Amino acid sequence: QVQLVESGGGLVQAGGSLNLSCVVSGRTFSSYGMGWFRQASGKEREFVAGISWSGTSTYYGDSVKGRFTISRDNAKNTVYLQMNNLKPEDTAVYLCNTIAPAWSPWGQGTQVTVSS
């Protein structure tokens, strides 16, 4: 069974930075494109960023372009999300998964809270 473990969230002031990590086990990580998603309280899950299996292609949701950077280390089965210039509207639980179809179950995610 796949296991997704996200970490690195926290409370940060607007304009600050955080670096999230997601460790994947139970799958051949290097064979899959990966993505970061977020879900704010009372809202639907939203795509944030994606990266190809090799790491050579990346893509972002419009709301985070130019501020967030996704990367991966296939030797460590880990995908990262560097978040800069954070805004209060970035507050959410951040989760990782493969690009559709998503693996089940999802991880618990990591909470990011940005204060104004």
Structural class assignment? mainly beta
**Spatial order of strands in the largest sheet:** 2-10-9-4-5-6
Which descriptor suits the 3D outline?
globular
- What is the helical fraction, as a range of percent? under 10%
Fraction of residues in β-strands: over 45%
Count of helix runs: 0
| Rg, Cα atoms, Å | 13 Å
On the 0 to 100 scale, the average pLDDT is 96
Biggest beta sheet attributes: 6 strands, mixed
Number of distinct beta strands: 10
Distance between the termini: 40 Å
Low-confidence stretches: none
Order of H and E elements: EEEEEEEEEE
Summed up, what is this model?
The chain is mostly beta strands. The protein has strands at about 5, 10-15, 20-25, 35-40, 45-50, 60, 70-75, 80-85, 90-100, 110-115. The strands form two sheets. It has a six-stranded mixed sheet with strand order 2-10-9-4-5-6, with no helix packed on it.
Structure, described:
It is a single chain. The chain is globular. It is mainly β and 116 residues long. The strands form two sheets. A six-stranded mixed β-sheet has the order 2-10-9-4-5-6, with no helix packed on it. Strands 1-3-8-7 form a four-stranded antiparallel β-sheet, with no helix packed on it. 0% of the residues lie in helices and 49% in strands.
